[in-house]
Amino acid sequence: MRTADLELDLDVFTGPFDLLLAVVLREEVSLLEVELGAVVVAYVGHLEEEGDLDLEAATEFLVLVAALLELKSRLMLPAEEEAGLDLGPEEAADELLARMLEYRRYRDAGAELGRRLAAEAPYLHRAAPLPPELRRVSIEAAVRAYDPDRLGVALGDLLSAPPVPDTSHIRPTVSLERRLGVVRALLRRASRIDFDEQFGSEDRLTQAVTIFALLELHKKGEATWSQHENFGPIEVRGEMVEGRGRRVEAGAGGRG
Amino acid sequence: MSDGSAAELARIVEALLFLAPDPVPVGELIEACEVSEVQLRNALDLLAEELAPGRRGIVLREVAGGWALATDPAAEAAARRLLARPKTPPLTAAQAETLAIVAYLQPVSRPEIARIRGVSSESAVQTLGERGLIEEAGRSRFGAVIYRTSALFERLFGLRGLEDLPDVSKFDPTPEDAADLRERLLEAGEQRAAP
Amino acid sequence: MSDGSAAELARIVEALLFLAPDPVPVGELIEACEVSEVQLRNALDLLAEELAPGRRGIVLREVAGGWALATDPAAEAAARRLLARPKTPPLTAAQAETLAIVAYLQPVSRPEIARIRGVSSESAVQTLGERGLIEEAGRSRFGAVIYRTSALFERLFGLRGLEDLPDVSKFDPTPEDAADLRERLLEAGEQRAAP
């Protein structure tokens, strides 16, 4: 199933996900009223039914939800004073739409490239070594072709530490796969981790994708997590690791 | 080349292209054969005629800024049986998108690719690099590696050069698409107003 | 091959011999083309006629163990001019960086090159090796191949020896820094690699 077709039944909106996106962009529905958490829950429910995680589709979903989250957080926050960040909801929506269209252009160009590659595949080129008499390059015949300063300049560039980049214009990009890896690595070292302790200093998008990774781990039975009160600490426990440990012990006991 | 009839020159050009591991630019052929550009172009014309599709097992192609020999597609199945050459794996969607961005916007850095795709594109960039389709072209002023497509890219995609890429505006949404979206929006608005 | 006129088969055999790096035995051609021995022999006869000496730039030859295509001896001088000379296309940024590291730090291992550049440098190292600019100089105690520049490198850069390399301090952003060049390069590389 395409992410776009995900059926939603929210308080303020009923219909497929891509339509929600469209009406939000047109401000037919106020994004402030849309519970994005419910959208994520619906998606996770769908994953539950599907069984397997399609990473491409999941990534697409994350991109879209992240864009909505960004838009919503801009709406919720008081207007920023800084130049460049004072986008109104309308400009933000335009920008989002422009980004989606730009993406679509390269997605379609990529598909065309894929077809071209397939059409060219039957033309095979020769890949044979040169006959021995042509293989030897005569050093004596070699003349100066390069400027040694080129090497000095390259080394100078490598010696300069890069300036701290201004990232204010770049949106953070986070991959679910990588967040899964991070959480799994932490759970291998400790059976319990505290979410705030581990991820509290990350940016919001990273935190959101990490939560999504936790949902995925929960679905697979690799971890469970709990939060006893609103805004309270979130404790994550690795289940699979302990479970495996027990099975191994039981097996060893049986043989012994 | 002393006597240098066009036929003799065409034979020599054919031999050079047979030996050369990569497509050979016209300039290099002229130097190697020690002839004028007009003489060489005539020889290439003659060779193109002799190797016209369907005439021999080998065809003449202009790719990646030079001339190359390749086998006729009719021989593909037998060639794969003989050489056990695996078919080039098709591009995944992520690789195709990334390659399109590099091809049209080059030189382009990974953060820019990620911005357009909306997702980190590390593994697609790495795979395209390993397949030799893209290569590093220096660094941006923030120290990020920037990328461009390679000569192998042009060869595998049958392009004489980057100017052979289809016009990117061809892939912009059609007015019909836009109208369609607008209609769906209006409909959604009405549905919401109804109850 | 189902229809398989002799001419069609001759074209396919030509394509197969074009691709094969070594002479191909008749048995392998029969299997690849899925034809009888008689059919294949007929196709070879036809091909031998088309590629008879003096007709094209390529000739058909029966050599130890099978059939092969080879270039017409008339092309030898031009082939030498085209192919038996050092390749000196402009260095890419990746190649220039890698070559500079090898030139100034030699001997240096590939992991060190990658750490300084902040990206894997396999393809640059490989290309520089193929062009004969760098060569292997043994292995580090951890088993990594280490590299140095070659005699050809000195010729192509017009250097009488490594002591002729330009003084680094001329290009150094902080020439007053007293620390060892290698250490400083590694440090800057790690800063670049940090997210």
Question: Please, could you describe this protein's structure?
Answer:
The complex is a heterotrimer, with one copy of chain A (256 residues) and two copies of chain B (195 residues). With 256 residues, chain A is mainly α. Helix content of chain A is 57%, strand content 7%. Chain A contains ten helices and five strands, in the order ββαααααααβααββα. Chain A is extended. By secondary structure, chain B is α+β, with helices and mostly antiparallel strands. Chain B folds into two domains: 3-73, Winged helix-like DNA-binding domain superfamily/Winged helix DNA-binding domain (Arc Repressor Mutant, subunit A, Orthogonal Bundle), CATH 1.10.10; 93-176, Arc Repressor Mutant, subunit A (Orthogonal Bundle), CATH 1.10.10. A three-stranded antiparallel beta sheet of chain B has the order 3-5-4. In chain B, a hairpin with a 5-residue loop joins β4 (134-139) and β5. Chain B is elongated. Classes of the chains: A mainly alpha (256), B alpha+beta (195).
Please give a quick description of this structure.
The complex is a heterotrimer, with one copy of chain A (256 residues) and two copies of chain B (195 residues). Chain A has ten helices and five strands, in the order ββαααααααβααββα. By secondary structure, chain A is mainly alpha-helical.
Query: Per DSSP, what share of the residues of chain B sits in E-state strands of 2 or more residues?
Result: 5-15%
From the alpha-carbon coordinates, what is the Rg of chain B to the nearest angstrom? 23 Å
CATH topology heading of the largest domain in chain B? Arc Repressor Mutant, subunit A
Known CATH architecture of the largest domain in chain B: Orthogonal Bundle
> What is the CATH H-level superfamily of the largest domain in chain B?
Winged helix-like DNA-binding domain superfamily/Winged helix DNA-binding domain
**Name of the CATH class of the largest domain in chain B:** Mainly Alpha
Q: Pairing-aware structural class of the strands and helices of chain B?
A: alpha+beta
Care to count the β-strands of chain A?
A: 5
For the largest sheet of chain B, list the strands in their spatial order. 3-5-4
Q: What's the pLDDT, averaged over the residues of chain A?
A: 74
